[in-house]
Amino acid sequence: MTPDPISDMSVRFRILVAVAFALLAVSRAGAQAPSLEDVLRRADGYLRVWVPQLANIVSSEAYEQRLLTASAIGPRPRRLKSDVLLVRRPGSINWILFRDVVEVDSRPLTHQPDRLLKLFVSQAADAEEQARRIAADGLQYHFPGATASSTNPFLGIALMQGTYQSHFRFRLGDAERSLGPRVRALRFQEIEETEPADQSGPRKLPPLLTDAGRVQGTVWLDVETGEIVKTDARMALESGPVSTTKTTFARDERLGILVPKEMRTEWRNFSGTAKYSNYRRFEVRTTEVPDLTTIKP
Fold it and tell me: Where are the beta strands (DSSP E) in 110-256?
């Protein structure tokens, strides 16, 4: 009996389809969604690599603040221009954000240009303390109610470091395909911690952010790499107003890393939008003059 070639091909096709479906099922079973513990570990691992890459980076910030509700008698929008410097604390993965306001409503301030850079380049013993004073003085130009925490574009991302993870409850949320094929929401809420009870009973410990209150919110991250692309943090002191800080990150092709692109803030009756540009990495030369022209790829 002569075999029917058409029938034989049909059987082979059905076998190939069955094998393909079987392989797909095995692939899906093996590609299980990562656990919450895996995601937190990967976020911390990403930050351990990313934070040192932020050392010696300065950017220009254009920050517009305005009244939330339109009012003829309310203050006009305030436009601030600042130098924002990220300094890595030696021997630590932690970093400190310093902001030096250089222009208010198109009016340049009279202090020395690039004074934050020159301060750290000089390697003064009290450089960090002087920089803190500069940053604190700059808060006077913001609308009332602004704090160092609520105006920090790195706030949400800093809280994801392993050092702080034990202070929060976490929950994995939905996928956010618009931000990346493997991006999911990770929700967090600060735990109200207490000291062990004594004769007067348990005592509630202060929040992590003593200037802005207990914090909760969401970060959006790649669950495979831990890369964080967007953050949303909400803070409130007891019986106080809520403030929010939302930051989106984008890759700077010259630096080769993610950096803040935009920050949106709200506190009391004010809202603000900060945009970041002109990222550059500076190097210290033997003449102790910062070189701001060299951008490392």
Answer: 168-175, 183-190, 194-198, 201-204, 214-222, 228-236, 242-252
